[in-house]
Design goal:
Layout lengths: L5 E5 L1 H4 L4 E2 L5 E2 L1 H9 L5 E3 L7 H14 L4 E5 L2 H6 L3 H15 L5 E5 L4 H4 L5 H25 L2 E3 L22 H22 L1
Parallel strand pairs: 1-4, 1-5, 5-6, 6-7
Antiparallel strand pairs: 2-3
Helix pairs in contact: 2-8, 3-5, 5-7
InterPro entries: SGNH_hydro, SGNH_hydro_sf
Pfam family, one: Lipase_GDSL_2
Protein name: GDSL-type esterase/lipase family protein
Length: about 200
């Protein structure tokens, strides 16, 4: 049986920012915990990068992920679009392209929806916070449709009670803390393991 491989693409959430920092400067984020929980024996490739938008993933990460035979592929991206670079049509088009390109026989694709980031961002005027809340809610509704249509595995961070715990998040309100990455990695592993068992 070939070694189980894992690929992750996306933004700094995918990169693991907020997790423990390794000697080489990389982050031990949720991907690290996910791989440990699943007993991933092959290569773990994490292309997540700080500031990446859905367009960045389309332009710079997706082709690499598609070229690899990894049976498990994670996609965590969109927060930067929603907060700083939002174009609804482009956002939806890119997400649809990313997930539909990856969702092929033999590959299990997992993601998370967007947690309540607008509630935690410090120093926002009320009107801006309200706009962001609406934007994030709309994005999660759109992602729900992709999950159903394409058979994706999705961890519901928008409604999980544990995500309300401040210990889960860095002071910037955007990134999970080291503890948060561990919780997310473990929860994703449970969902992925369940989905893989259903396919056997």
């Amino acid at each position: 049986m070939p070694d189980l491989e894992l690929s992750v693409i996306g933004d700094s959430f995918a990169e693991g920012r907020g997790g423990l920092v390794r000697p080489d400067g990389s982050f031990a984020g949720f991907t690290t915990h996910l791989a440990q929980c699943l007993g991933v024996s092959g290569e773990v490739l994490n292309l997540g990068s700080y500031g990446a938008t859905t367009q960045d993933v389309v332009d710079h990460q997706l082709a690499t992920a598609l070229a690899r035979p990894a049976a498990l592929t994670g996609v965590i991206v969109g927060g930067n679009d929603l907060v700083t670079d939002y174009d609804r049509a482009r956002f939806r088009r890119n997400l649809t392209y990313i997930f539909s390109s990856l969702a092929r026989p033999g590959r299990l694709v997992f993601t998370t929806n967007w947690p309540r980031i607008p509630d935690r961002l410090p120093g926002l005027p009320d009107a801006v916070r309200s706009t962001l809340r609406e934007r994030f809610a709309e994005a999660n509704e759109f992602l729900d449709g992709l999950v159903l249509d394409l058979g994706l595995v999705c961890l519901d961070l928008a409604n999980a009670p544990v995500t309300a715990d401040p210990v889960m998040w860095c002071p910037d309100g955007m990134h999970p803390s080291a503890a948060g990455h561990q919780v997310i990695g473990t929860a994703l592993a449970d969902l992925v393991d369940e989905a893989r068992s259903a396919l056997i």
